[in-house]
Specification:
Largest sheet: 3 strands, mixed
Number of domains: 3
Number of strands: 9
Shape: elongated
Strand order of the largest sheet: 7-8-9
Helix content: 55-70%
Radius of gyration: 40 Å
Structural class: mainly alpha
Length: 314
C-alpha cells in the first residue's frame, strides 16, 4: 500500500503481519509509530544514559529464597553434556563420511590397478617400452602409493572413531546420572549470583525521561525555525552543553553561552531568536530566589574575564 507524509510525498510501504483481522492502514500507522519510538529509545540511550547503571548495590539470591517463586529450569550441567555429545556425534559422522568416500575411491583405485596390470601383461616382453607404457607405469606406481596411504589413514580414522564412541558412551552414562531440570533459585545460589537493586535506577530513569521531555519541548520551536532534521539535534545539544559565563547586572543574571563551534550567520540568527523567545517566557534561577535569567549567544572573543584580589583591610 502507499503512505503519504504531511508534505504530500507518497511512498510505497510493505508490511508483513499475521494479524489478519487488523486493518492494513492501522498496521502501517503502528509500524511508523514504532520507528519513531525506536529512534527515541536510541536517543535516550545515547544522550541521556537510560541504559546506564546508577548503583551497584545488589542482594544475594540466598537472602531472596523465601521472597521469590521458584521454578524448574534446564540443568546447565545436563545441557553442557548434551552439547558435547552433539559435537562428538557430528565429528564421528564426518569421519564416517570420510571413511566411506575413501573406501569408494579405493575400490575404484584397485579396479584401475587391475586394468593397468592386464594391459602390462598383454604387452610383449620383447617390445621396447614406448611413451604410453611409461605413463602407465607411472600411473600404476602412483595408484599403489595412494592405496598404501589409504590403508594407513583408514587405521588412524578407525582409532579416532573408536575413541569418539568411547567418549560418547561416557557422556551418556554421565547424563543418566544427571537430572534434566533443577531448581532455578538453588542454581543461582550455588553460582553465587546476586540480583541488582534497581530502586535508584527507577528514580534516575524517571529524572532522565523528564529531562528528555523538557529537552524535546524546548527543541521543537528551534526545529521549526531551523528546518533541517539532519543536524538540528546536534546543534541544539551543543548549545545546551556549551560553556558559559554568568554576569549579574543588578537586575538579572546574564548567561553568556559560548559554543565550541562558530555558527554561520543564518544559524546564529536563528539561535538568537530562539533564545529571545525563551527569555520572553520569564526565565528564573532554579534556586527559589526568583532572580531573572537572560540567555545570550556570545563568542569567546567577546568575553573578557578579570580576577581581582579583594581590597586590603588596612
Amino acid at each position: 500500500m502507499c503512505a503519504t507524509n504531511p508534505q504530500g510525498k507518497i511512498t510505497q510501504v510493505s508490511i508483513l503481519s499475521d494479524d489478519h483481522e487488523r486493518p492494513s492502514q492501522q498496521s502501517v500507522q503502528l509500524i511508523f509509530q514504532r520507528w519513531v519510538q525506536e529512534n527515541d529509545f536510541k536517543y535516550l540511550d545515547k544522550h541521556f544514559g537510560i541504559n546506564q547503571l546508577t548503583s551497584y548495590r545488589s542482594t544475594p539470591y540466598a537472602q531472596l529464597r523465601n521472597a521469590l517463586e521458584d521454578r524448574q529450569i534446564a540443568n546447565p550441567h545436563y545441557s553442557a553434556l548434551s552439547k558435547q555429545g552433539v559435537k562428538l556425534r557430528a565429528k564421528k559422522a564426518s569421519l564416517l563420511l570420510a571413511a566411506h568416500n575413501a573406501a569408494r575411491r579405493e575400490v575404484q583405485r584397485q579396479q584401475r590397478l587391475k586394468e593397468l596390470q592386464e594391459a602390462s601383461r598383454n604387452q610383449s616382453e620383447s617390445t621396447p617400452e614406448n611413451t604410453e607404457q611409461l605413463e602407465a607405469s607411472k600411473e600404476r606406481r602412483k595408484e599403489q602409493e595412494s592405496s598404501t596411504r589409504h590403508h594407513q589413514y583408514r587405521a588412524k580414522r578407525e582409532e579416532q572413531i573408536s575413541s569418539i564412541e568411547s567418549e560418547i558412551e561416557v557422556i551418556e552414562q554421565a547424563k543418566e546420572k544427571t537430572e534434566r531440570t533443577v531448581s532455578r533459585i538453588d542454581t543461582l545460589i550455588k553460582d553465587g549470583m546476586v540480583r541488582m537493586d534497581l530502586g535508584n535506577k527507577t528514580l534516575m530513569d524517571t529524572l532522565k525521561i523528564i529531562a528528555r521531555n523538557q529537552f524535546y519541548r524546548s527543541l521543537h520551536p528551534f526545529q521549526e525555525a531551523y528546518n533541517n532534521r539532519r543536524d538540528d539535534h546536534d546543534h541544539y545539544r551543543e548549545l545546551t552543553q556549551c560553556d558559559g559565563v554568568l554576569k549579574w547586572t543588578g537586575e538579572e543574571i546574564e548567561v553568556h553561552l559560548m559554543p565550541r563551534v562558530n555558527y554561520e550567520p543564518k544559524l546564529a540568527g536563528i539561535i538568537k531568536e530562539h533564545l529571545a523567545r525563551l527569555n520572553a517566557t520569564g526565565l528564573t534561577l532554579p534556586d527559589g530566589s526568583g532572580r531573572k535569567l537572560r540567555l545570550l549567544l556570545t563568542s569567546r572573543e567577546q568575553v573578557s574575564v578579570q580576577v581581582t584580589s579583594p581590597p586590603s583591610e588596612e
